[in-house]
Amino acid sequence: MTREEACRRYEIPVEILKEYERCGFCRDRDQAPGACRYEDSDLERISLMMTLCEAGLDPQERETYMRMFLAGQDTLEARLRILDERREDTLREIHGRERQLDLLDDLRHRLRMVIQKERMDER
Questions:
Q1: pLDDT tens profile 92-122
Q2: What Å distances lie between residue 78 and 19, 20, 50, 65, 74, CA to CA?
Q3: Binning pLDDT at 50, 70 and 90, where does residue 32 land?
Q4: Taking Cα atoms as reference points, which of 41, 74, 79, 77 lies closest to residue 61?
Q5: What secondary structure does DSSP assign to 2-28, as a single string?
Q6: Which long-range contacts link 77-84 to residues 24+ away (Cβ below 8 Å)?
Q7: Where are the beta strands (DSSP E) in 44-115?
Q8: How far apart are CA 108 and CA 103, in angstroms?
Q9: Lower CB count within 10 Å: N or C terminus of the chain?
Q10: What are the CA-CA distances from residue 98 to residues 1, 86, 95, 112 (Å)?
Q11: 49, 24 in Cβ contact below 8 A?
Q12: What is the mean pLDDT of residues 9-29?
């Protein structure tokens, strides 16, 4: 099936298909860009690429991971390291955001206390 058919039928973002082609994962590598014919095996790998994208891996990480995936079982530990690193980065981001929320909540609480005190003083 063509890129357009794959996008429409399986709701695959066109950016993911272009990335897949750009990395040379399409079996029709000699084809012009956008002329790749997708097979079921491509769709399975594209599904993995979409999952990696949604999990927060950047394009270079996705390409590296996919090349390892295609290389087979000898890359299992290396792929796990990539996922572990992304997980740690994500946790750092989450904890940073939690600290921001705590600071915002503290500031909001202080302002509410000032507002409440002013209202009481007005009475």
A1: 999 999 999 999 999 999 999 999 999 999 9
A2: 22, 21, 20, 9, 9
A3: low
A4: 79
A5: -HHHHHHHH---HHHHHHHHHTT-SS-
A6: 82/57, 83/55
A7: none
A8: 9
A9: C
A10: 45, 18, 5, 21
A11: no
A12: 87
**Long-range contacts for 38-42 (Cβ within 8 Å, ≥24 apart)?**
38/1, 38/2, 38/3, 38/5, 38/6
Q: Which two tokens stand for residue 7?
A: 């996008």
- How far is residue 56's CA from residue 50's CA, in Å, rounded to a whole number? 10
Q: Which residues of 29-68 are buried (b: 16+ CB within 10 A; e: fewer)?
A: eeeeeeebebeeebeebbeebbebbeeebeeebbbbbbeb
Record the tokens describing residue 79, joined without a space.
């792929």
Q: What is the pTM of this model?
A: 0.79
Contact 1, 37 (CB under 8 A): yes
Query: What is the C-alpha separation between 99 and 93, in angstroms, rounded?
Result: 10
